[in-house]
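In the current project phase, work has continued on tokenised descriptions of protein folds. One protein thus recorded appears below exactly as we store it.

——
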Amino acid sequence: MVDSAVDPLDLYAKVEDLLGVKEAAPDLYAHYLLFLSSVDFETLLDVGCGSGDFLRQIHGALKIPRVKGIDLSPMMVSKTLEQGYDAECINLCDVKGQYDVLTAVFDMLNYLDKEQLKHFFACVREHLNDDGLFLCDINTLYGFENVAVGAYIVDDEERFLTIDSDFENCEYSAEFTLFEKEGITFNKSQETIRQYYHTVGDIVMVSGLELVQSDDVNLYGFDEADKAFLVLKKG
């Protein structure tokens, strides 16, 4: 067994398909699609585009004239490029130009603490056209405490993944340990990925944008909503 250092984002990219994200994603994407199908716009930037699945589905349904994805994981960006979409490994603040719509899908904002959120939304406002829309989803308190917390083990013969997670003082931490088969040995990668709980009110206050819509989302069939879908507007 060999230990190797991996960026947390790239480690997540390696195991995303083992986490059930792709199975739950269509139900979440439906909220974005339903809203975006009701408004007129021509340009969309997906922040934290991941493997490009959201861009593919939203562009396929709405035929948006210009879409682009950005992500801080080179591995994720390469996957989006493979799907045929414009993508770049770049921070939002360094992007050129403005867009009618910005999206941050699948709890991307929960990876930012409160200070990072302030900086992020300053960049959102800078890159939105006047009357532009910012769409996102965030994990609810119920989602953190009752859905995300616990131990998780999964393998597919070539990879063996364990996740040990906890939620305390509004901070969620998940220790990812991945064993990847290489010949007769296994390479071990280990990283801690953190998320932070934000209320809808927190997001509205720090964003400097107008709340247009807030919907409860239940992706996993529990008693309460595990996410909130938000639409905010630049005045």
Q: What stands out?
A: The helical segments are 8-15, 21-36, 53-62, 74-82, 114-127, 141-148, 200-207. Residues 163 and 176 are 5 Å apart (CA to CA). The first strand starts at residue 2 and ends at 4.
